[in-house]
Design goal:
By secondary structure, this protein is of the alpha+beta class. Helices cover 17% and strands 38% of the residues. InterPro entries: Transpos_ISL3, Transposase_DDE, Transposase_Znf.
Amino acid sequence: MTTQFIRRDLLPAGLKADQVELVGNTIRIHSRSAKAAAACPRCGAVSGHVHSRYQRRPADLPAHGRKVELVLQVRRFRCRSMYCSTRIFAERFPLSVTHPHARRTSRLQGLVRHIGLALGGRPAQALARRLLLPVSKDTFLRSIQNMTEAASSDLRVIGIDDWAWRKGQRYGTMICDLERRRVIDLLPDREPATVESA
């Protein structure tokens, strides 16, 4: 049994598609929030009074051998609370769509993080090029570093792994929480043979 194709099926939940166009080898999806109002990030007051609009263009997962670009229409609202110091604020999209100031959607960023953890810098970049992901080797390493959380005091099993930026000259160290499978910290540079086992 076949189901009818709906534009919103292309998008993360919480967005509406206004227009889908093919520009060169890029699928461009013009979209906006499905909500009519937004909450002020400082005081939480809900406002529907639109002040202005601007566009964000986060990259998304590729489709059918083409790059996908979301053109998000972002509204700026006036805060209706007279006690709030924020007069104008931009609407926030759900974190399942994208993070504030992010250049990629959350689903693309999740894929970048997984490929970066599995392959590292240059091998990840080589695979990403074949998958039509516009991501550099440094971005893969940064995505791993950004997911690091403050090390908690209840760490029981940690792992230390080294890699060579330049063989015999420049090394880096990654410290992981092996129970939670999380990166704790990336140490960018060290001299050879300075990490000793207990």
